[in-house]
Amino acid sequence: MNSVYQNILIIEDERLQRRLLQRALESLTDAKIHIAENGLEGLELATQFNPDLIFCDLKMPNMDGVQFAQQLVNLSIETKLVFISSTDSDILNAVVHMASNQGLKHCTKLNKPISKQDIVRVLQQLEQVNVVPHNKDIPTALILEEDELQLALINKEIRPFYQPQFDAKSGGIVGIEALARWHHPTEGILTPDRFLPAISEFGLNYLLCSTMLRQSFSQLKHWHNKGFSVAMSVNAAPSDLMQANFADRVVGLLEEFSLPGHFITLEVTETEVASNLNLLIEHTSRLRLSGVNISIDDFGIGYSSLAQLLSSPFNELKIDRFFINEMLTSDSHMATIDFIVSLAKKLGLTVVAEGVESKQQALALQQMGCDVLQGFLFSKPISGEQLEALLAKNFSQHL
Questions:
Q1: Membrane-crossing residues (predicted)?
Q2: Which of 137, 189, 131 is nearest to 158 (CA)?
Q3: With contact defined as beta carbons under 8 Å apart, do 28 and 123 qualify?
Q4: Is the peptide bond before 185 cis (omega within 30 degrees of 0)?
């Protein structure tokens, strides 16, 4: 019996379907099963019992599945949600995407007729993610001043955490992505969503990028001196790369720390439109001449385009987690990943997949030809000290 779930809610207007789903779940879990015949009843039970998991039919009288999902968002009820329907897959996929965008981050689907094997697959998929209960305190937004942020950057309170990247075939660590964390004196360790909006508001993006570059290069040199010959990826926005001294700054850091350029990858984040594409190409070309790798981050969802990919000197492409999240339950997401990998291979690009959370995803990506995998399946972002211990273990196993 499975003890992951305490309360499961089934919302289904067809009696036979309700009963079949209930029997299957009772045989697979020891959760309390709650039954509703429509969205209105389901919403009342969801409010009363705070279910860990909800199976919701898409087409129902009084309140359909789309309306029910919207009410969950309005009431701030966090749960795992499975839409069930016999409608066309493209409609079901669109509803899952809509619900995820509205804030229900752990949504998936089941096509009718539902088999017990399908239910097992979905349960296994959803067991790998944790949902924060809706009554848990949500961190309040910080009110930040420009001087406070500048001091935090200058004093290196904002410094890298590191997430390892693994070779899809050998399983060894081949790279590390540096990710900003603020070691706040009173709030503890803050993730970027707590301070990046203020960084952008005060125009401190380039100072952040410069700080992250210096700290990451210094850490990488330390690891190389210990015999851990890994690469380092650092994020840079198009506006950073278009700064007049950006390429000189990077080349200067390579010389200062005696690092070969091929150990550095700059991930160009597609969070903004490049205001001067020619200048962006000029600076990235100079960096490539110094051996630095240039990666398109979040490919497929930002402002990147095939035209930019063909006209710029990128040599790595990073598939966004948006496609990875749904690849096992959406044929269109799987086909998109397959297309991206195939295109990248024909263009001679290294392919990195981020947001990998399950062994099934990792295996599928490896079979499709992804070169490097990154995600919580392997490791969350961790401190330099923690990663050094992981590197020591990794290199001892792959000697």
A1: none
A2: 189
A3: yes
A4: no
Average pLDDT, the chain: 87
**Distance between start and end Cα atoms, the chain:** 42
Instruction: Determine contact, residues 318/267, Cβ cutoff 8 Å.
Output: yes
Cβ count near 348 (within 10 Å):
7
Note the residue count of the chain: 399
* Coil, helix or strand at residue 257: coil
Examine residue 139 and say whether the peptide bond preceding it is cis (omega within 30 degrees of 0).
Answer: no
CB 279 within 8 A of CB 298: no
Q: Are 272 and 237 in contact (CB under 8 A)?
A: yes
Distance CA 2, CA 188 (A): 35
Closest CA to 109 of 122, 98, 99: 122
Biggest alpha carbon distance in the chain?
Answer: 71
Q: What is the mean pLDDT of residues 3-21?
A: 88
pTM, to two decimals: 0.71
Helices and strands (DSSP H and E) totals, the chain: 16, 14
Residue among 74, 7, 90, 92 nearest 45 (CA): 7
- DSSP H or E run through 364: helix 359-368
∠ Cα 161 257 148 (to 5°): 45
- Structure token digits, residue 18: 């309700």
For residue 227, list its beta bridge partners. none
Tokens 């086909």 belong to residue = 335
Enter the DSSP assignment of 318: E
Mean pLDDT of 146-171: 95
The token pair that represents 184 in the structure block: 């706040």
